């Protein structure tokens, strides 16, 4: 704590090194960079400026930390929410209700009513049944709900099966072939204003062609619905643009994505909506951890760290790769199996990987942990919820062991002194 002083409840320090944060807050600890977050938000927003009318709704599920939401609100982002809780967080962060889009197959009656009362901008209906229930509530409350119909385009996103959402066998949206008829019925239902279509075919997409195929199908559907005499003024293209997790991986850039959307939607006369999550937050955060001990193994040693699958679930759930780097690398490397302390063999971050050499007590980070990291944390094995801090800096150089200049901006789930 010696390095910090508090001003209006915000911690300041001249120059923050990760070890200082580890000493002050403890590990495991998520650390987010405001500078990187702001840069990503601007790169994505600026790329899409090639389109005539754009609305950005940050996918809150990827990182619902209030500090993150506040930064994005200031950059002009609204929110894509999938629960009443996410909606309350977006509102608490200062996002305008009008800029909030509510997605999800299981919105409850209470959630629909609260969202209507709050005046959110758009409901992305995932079924006709949901539309009829919302209409009933709207009529009772004397309101009109602006809606888009989420369509399942039956396109393979080419991503991990557990995060693919646009194949016919996935639970999301209404079947493509039935969408025009459902749209027509909902468009004449009192209480609803059908204004558009929505789709989202999956997360962590490494290629643009599945998106292009899906958007093209949605364009054809839009033409058919318009030809039947109904308005389609908004298309919500979802999220899904992927990010590199391994050094050296190459992914389509936001400007490539924007160019594709511009080409496909030429002449559509729509407001284009986007729900980016991972592409904004993925590479804005790391999970810092301390090596508890290095245990002899068969073949490679077990590097047991104090972070676990309850803090970062992605490797256990999707066999996901997160680069591991020592905070103060010596230049030496070692072959290791990296595991957490939880009593499950799935609590494994990496097997047989060449990493920076580490020993007991060393600090290290799992990189690209800003999306679907802390938000998926839980308390399994009665471990406390992992803390998160945001550092306000102009540089983000984790491996070089420095984040500078620094102000810890805001934090959640942290010890009382930081609150
Ligand atoms: C409806 C919807 N919109 C947006 C997203 C955000 O996706 P991503 O983080 O891949 O951009 C998701 C998650 O896959 C989603 O389900
Ligand atoms: N949780 C997933 C992404 C889910 C996207 C939600 N639609 C991941 O970590 O990759």
From TrEMBL:
UniProt EC number: 4.1.1.20
Cofactors (names): pyridoxal 5'-phosphate
InterPro entries: Ala_racemase/Decarboxylase_C, DAP_deCOOHase_LysA, De-COase2_C, De-COase2_N, De-COase2_pyr-phos_BS, Orn/DAP/Arg_de-COase, PLP-binding_barrel
Pfam (any one): Orn_DAP_Arg_deC
PROSITE patterns attached to this UniProt entry: ODR_DC_2_1
MF (Gene Ontology): diaminopimelate decarboxylase activity
Top enzyme class: lyase
Function description: Specifically catalyzes the decarboxylation of meso-diaminopimelate (meso-DAP) to L-lysine.
Protein name: Diaminopimelate decarboxylase
Gene giving rise to this polypeptide: lysA
């Amino acid at each position: 704590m010696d390095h910090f002083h508090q001003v209006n409840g915000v911690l300041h320090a001249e120059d923050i090194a990760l070890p200082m944060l580890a000493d002050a807050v403890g590990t495991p600890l998520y650390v987010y960079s405001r500078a990187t977050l702001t840069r990503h938000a601007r790169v994505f927003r600026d790329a899409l400026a090639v389109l005539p009318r754009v609305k950005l709704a940050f996918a809150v599920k990827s990182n619902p930390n209030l500090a993150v939401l506040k930064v994005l609100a200031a950059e002009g982002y609204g929110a894509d929410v999938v629960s009443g809780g996410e909606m309350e967080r977006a509102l608490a962060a200062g996002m305008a209700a009008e800029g909030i889009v509510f997605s999800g197959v299981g919105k409850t009656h209470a959630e629909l009513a609260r969202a209507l009362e709050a005046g959110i901008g758009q409901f992305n209906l995932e079924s006709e049944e949901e539309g009829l229930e919302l209409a009933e509530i709207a009529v009772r409350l004397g309101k009109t709900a602006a809606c888009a119909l989420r369509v399942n385009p039956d396109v393979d996103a080419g991503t991990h099966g557990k995060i693919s959402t646009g194949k016919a066998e996935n639970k999301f949206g209404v079947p493509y072939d039935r969408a025009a008829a459902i749209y027509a019925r909902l468009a004449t239902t009192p209480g609803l204003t059908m204004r558009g279509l929505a789709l989202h075919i999956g997360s962590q997409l490494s290629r643009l062609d599945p998106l292009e195929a899906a958007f093209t199908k949605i364009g054809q559907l839009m033409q058919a619905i318009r030809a039947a005499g109904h308005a389609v003024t908004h298309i919500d293209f979802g999220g899904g643009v992927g990010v590199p997790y391994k050094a050296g991986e190459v992914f389509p850039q936001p400007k490539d994505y924007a160019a594709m959307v511009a080409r496909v939607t030429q002449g559509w006369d729509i407001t284009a909506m986007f729900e980016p999550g991972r592409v904004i937050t993925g590479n804005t955060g790391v999970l810092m951890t301390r090596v508890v001990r290095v245990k002899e193994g068969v073949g490679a040693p077990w590097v047991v760290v104090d972070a676990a699958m309850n803090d970062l679930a992605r490797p256990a759930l999707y066999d996901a790769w997160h680069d591991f780097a020592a905070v103060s690398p010596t230049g030496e490397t070692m072959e290791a199996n990296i595991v957490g302390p939880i009593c499950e063999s799935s609590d494994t971050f990496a097997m047989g990987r060449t990493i920076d050499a580490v020993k007991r007590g060393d600090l290290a980070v799992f990189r690209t942990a800003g999306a679907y990291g802390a938000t998926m944390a839980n308390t399994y094995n009665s471990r406390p919820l992992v803390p998160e801090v945001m550092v306000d800096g102009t540089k983000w150089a984790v491996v070089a062991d420095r984040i500078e200049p620094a102000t810890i901006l805001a934090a959640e789930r942290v010890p009382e002194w930081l609150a």
